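Hello forum,

I keep getting stuck at the same step: I have a sequence, I want structure tokens, and every attempt I make locally crashes halfway through. Rather than fight my setup again tonight, could one of you with a working pipeline run this one for me? It's a single chain of 105 residues.
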Amino acid sequence: MKQNSIPIPQLGAATALVQLLSEYPTLPRATWYVDGVALHGHLHDAGFEELGMYAARLGGSIRPQDEFELRGEMVRSHYLRTTWRDVPVEIVVLVPVAADAAVAA
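Reply #2:
Ran it on my machine without issues. Output:
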């Protein structure tokens, strides 16, 4: 039977996600999606500590980005951006601005 020779761009990111979850099953739960060739994760009910756990395994840098109001509370998004297994990875967590300021202090 002839194999399909058409490249599937999402396959690399999907495979990297399976490997990540298999190799590090204790990482905090995240919602994941594949966008083209990149892997995106969103941490829910989490903060810097949980995002740092991913950074410790994957490397990369954590940077603040947008500040906005969510359900009456000011929050700031923080992104971990890295490359893992040749796949661009971006993981985001929302942190209350008050907690963000406390960490900076």
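The first strand starts at residue 30 and ends at 35. If your local run keeps crashing, start a new thread with the error log.
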